[in-house]
Amino acid sequence: MSVLTHINSQGQACMVDVTGKTPTVRTACASATVQLTEKTARAIEDDQVAKGDVLAAARIAGIMAAKQTSRLIPLCHDIPLGLVQIDFRLCHRRNQLRIFTYARTTAATGVEMEALSAASVAALTVYDMCKGMDKGIWVRNIRLDGKTGGKSGYWLRPGGGVGVVKAVCRSERKHVAKQEVERAELRPDWGMVGDAHAGEQAGDRQLSLLAIESYRRQFPDRQLPPFGTFAENLTTEGLDLPTLPLGARLLVGSCEVEVSKIGKICHHRCAIYQQSGDCVMPREGIFVRVLNGGTVAAGDLIRVVSELESSV
Which residues carry out catalysis? Predict the structure, then answer.
């Protein structure tokens, strides 16, 4: 049975004592949906709202709200935020603005409330900016989509299109297994800095992803080999990678990538095949182009953005 940690033995509200906990890297992502009219959605996209740039105001408001979470939510701890990122996607088919937030900290407690505060206040700011056009705007589906770090590890919303990076891998040569690294830099239209598969010649194969679920299918009755065995750059968990459509956008931590290729043709049995006895990468791996760069690390959350939505 779960225990309500903010209630003491006398039934009184209390702040959880985290004094003795070791600070660790923690991340969280949240989202909100703002239901608009077609006219308002077009006005936001075309920057034709009388009050000014709706999304610029909402982004700053969301970041400020995350930084003020402990003052908004009575029993939250004041934690040092390393990153707060807010992304917007317009879905014209549904006349919706989707708000995606991502927060990262190194602290003794989680960053979920900061991600949720950012999503909530960003959505309210959209309403405030646009209420002169439409007072019927509907803010809904404010939710946590995933979190990592802490004693409980990671949590992903079932069916929420969210996964987690289990390992970051790279190599200086092709056709060999990659080695795990703590973190790596992703560069737009290039790939992973320091990796043999990156560069101007990489084309639609700048960065490769393979799910741990593929490892488990490949080796159902034995211990899994090291991540990077199949020369993938990112080993993931929680996402059915081969079913993602071409053009789908993924938010990987603070980076953004686009699915550019599903699987590949293996023309010869390289060292990877010889070492593992088979190679699952051509069947179940995917490749992406890096759109917005940054640093990626094990434990970062991955979120699928529908191919029907446009970035604004």
Answer: 128
Domain match, 153 and 90 both: yes
DSSP letter (8 states) at residue 222:
S
Domain boundary among 114, 138, 158: 158
Which has the minimum average pLDDT: 11-25, 34-48, 212-226, 233-247? 11-25
> Do 38 and 131 have their domain in common?
yes
- Give pLDDT, residue 161: 92
d(CA 116, CA 230): 36
Question: Token pair of 231, please?
Answer: 């020369």
Domain assignment of residue 263, yes or no? yes
| 167-183 pLDDT per residue, tens | 999 999 988 889 999 99
Q: Show the domain range for 198.
A: 162-305
Give 174's contacts (C-beta < 8 A, 6+ positions apart). 196, 197, 231
Read off the tokens for 292: 């917005």
Coil, helix or strand at residue 1 = coil
Residue 48 to residues 53, 124, 130: CA-CA distances in angstroms? 8, 19, 10
Instruction: Residue 115: give its domain's CATH number.
Output: 3.30.70.640
